Amino acid sequence: MPQAYDSLAEWFEYLNDDCDYDKWSQYFIEGLAALGAGGEGLEIGCGSGAFCRALAKVGYSMTGADISAPMLARAQTLAREEGLTIPFVLADAEKLRTPKKYDFILSPNDCYNYLRPQALTGAFRRAAGALRSGGIFWFDVSSEYKLRNKVANNMFADDRDEVTYLCFTRLCGERVEMDVTLFVRREDGKYDRFDERHTQYVHTERALLTSLDEAGFDVLRTEGRLGEEKEGSDRLNLICRKR
Questions:
Q1: pTM of the model
Q2: Is the same domain home to 177 and 92?
Q3: What is the distance between the alpha carbons of residues 111 and 39, in angstroms, rounded to a whole number?
């Protein structure tokens, strides 16, 4: 079975057009400015580059990193279409090494849910190593509430003219297995089928805070999606500063 996002890369932003990338990006733009984060940023798990493009448009110097080569290819294509020059590099959050240090690191939209719990501290140390002293590390995870009560043991579908998306999920202890199928329409009207397996891990806030402290970060605040209350939110944001 292909790796996660091998086939989904081309369709990811299209199928997520209801998440309001503009509002989500503005949340980061305003938050980084309030923190005085500096102008040079790295996005870990950048996917097809929506946030990199949004931040680059308002003057930030961005680099995008992702473990998926198809996602990076799509990110490069979309950036060029918008007249943006953004370097996109193949990198694993667990093994991250960068030739330079950044003022801030962003990692929105579940990147660290794909890491096993025992890998978190090491991955956070890698992020710290890529930051200048006092640099900002801002990431989110799908909350424990969302994964256990909304995502797990469920089925999701999106049927459009060009593509049909199906996702069947099951809870397996502290992880959620997701079987994704795409049916992509060809010019002759027939469909090609693509299958992927995604695995996301449940991370509690307490475990994340412990790992961040061990990795050398002070947590400035935690909040839900777009700054809302954490209780019952689908997303947990952790805004941190490197000690």
A1: 0.96
A2: no
A3: 22
